[in-house]
Amino acid sequence: MKYRFILSFAALLAAACVSAQTQVQLSPRQWANKAEVAAAKNETVTAIKAYNKALAGGYVSASLFYNQARLYAQRGEMELAFGALKQSINTGWYQHEEMRNDADLVPLHADPRWTTQLQKAQDNERDYRATHASPESFKFVTSDLSLFWNTYDKLSSSGDPAALFEREYLDQGTPGLHGFVISRISSGANLAKTIARYPKYYAAIRPATLQVAAVESTIRKSARKFKSMYPQALFPDVYFVIGALSSGGTATSEGLLIGTEMITRTDAVPIDELSPWLKAGTKSIDLLPNLVVHELMHFQQQYNGSDLLSSAIKEGAADFLASLISEGNFNAHIYTYGYANEATLKQEFLSDMREKNRARWLYNGSSSDGRPSDLGYFIGFRIVQAYYQKASDKQQAVSDILNVKDFERFVEQSAYFVPGD
C-alpha cells in the first residue's frame, strides 16, 4: 500500500509539474488576453508584464498597444506611454475621439507630442472611413466557424479540452475571434466547460452554423438601406465565431463580432439543457441579419454615459434603427411584455433612469415574476421611436439618434414620457 501511495503521489506531482509548466508556457495571444483581464481588474503591474510578454512573442494589435499606453500614463511613465501610443497609431489605431476623451491619457495632454499623435489618429480615421464607407466592401468572415468544428471533432480524443481549444481554435483564429475571447469567451477552459454543460445543444447547431454564408446578401441589402439613411455610415468587417453561449454579438475596433451559437437554433436543436435565459436568448438563423444590423448600429454610435438612461437609449436605438432596415427582432419576447405593460414600465423607468445600477433593466440575464430581462431595450426603443416619429427630417433624425450628447434633452424632445402625447 505504501509503495502504491508513493507512486500515486509521484504521479500527482508529475502531473502538477506538467500543469504548472503548461500554465507558464502561454501563447502570445494568451498573454494578451491575460493582460486585458488584469487591466480590467486594475492589476496594473500584472497587466503591463503580460502585455510585454504578448508583444515579445509577436502578438501585435493596435488596441493592445493603446491599452498598454493607458496603463503607462496612469503610472506617470510618460516616455513608455508615448512609445506605446505611437506604436498603437502606427499599427492602425483610428478612434481619435475615444483617445481625446480617454481620462487615462489626460496626463499626456500637456506634452507637445500629444497633439501630434492625436492628429495621426485622426488621419488614420480618415483613411479608415475611405476604405469602409461602402456597404459592398466589408468582409464577411466565417473561417472561425470551420476552425471551431475542426477542433470540436478532436474533443473525444483529447485529454485536455481546454488546452485543445486554446491551441487549435483560439490561438489560430482571426482578429475577430481574438477580440471575442477577451470580451466574451474568456478562455479555452471556459469554452470547454460550456460545451460539456450543453453537449446536445452544441452538437445539434453545426448544420445551421455552416449556413451562415447564405445570409450575406440579406445583410448587405440592409447595409445599403442604411447607407441611404445615414450617408456617413461605416461598414466594418463582420466576424462569425462560436463562443460560450454568453453573447450574440458585440461591436469592437476589430469589427462586428457575432456569437453564432446564439443565433443558429432550429427546431431540430434540443433545448432541455438550457437555462430560461438561454431558451429566450438563443434564436433562429432567420434573425441573424437583424442581430448583425443591431451591432452595426452600435459601431456607428458616438455615445458617452454609463447610467441607465444612456445605456437604454444605446440599446433601444440599435433595435429601432435595425427595425427600419431588416426583418424581425431578435428581442421580440421583450417587446411582447413591454407593450402589454408599457404604462407601468414607463413610471418605473422614470424612477430609475439616472441610476448607475442597470441590473433591473439591462444585461441582467434572468427573469423574475414573469418579467423578462433586458426591458431597457424596449424602453430605449420607444424613446427613440417617439423622437424619430416627431422629426420632420428623418435623415437628420437618424444622425441625431446615433450621436446623442445630452440624453435627458433627447428624452425631453421625444416627449415619450409626456402624459397623453
Automatic annotation (TrEMBL):
**Highest taxon of source:** Bacteria
State the UniProt keywords alphabetically.
Signal
| InterPro entries recorded | GldB-like, TPR-like_helical_dom_sf
Which interval of the chain is the signal sequence? 1-20
PROSITE patterns from the UniProt entry: PROKAR_LIPOPROTEIN
Q: What is this protein called?
A: DUF2268 domain-containing protein
The lineage is: Bacteria, Pseudomonadati, Pseudomonadota, Betaproteobacteria, Burkholderiales
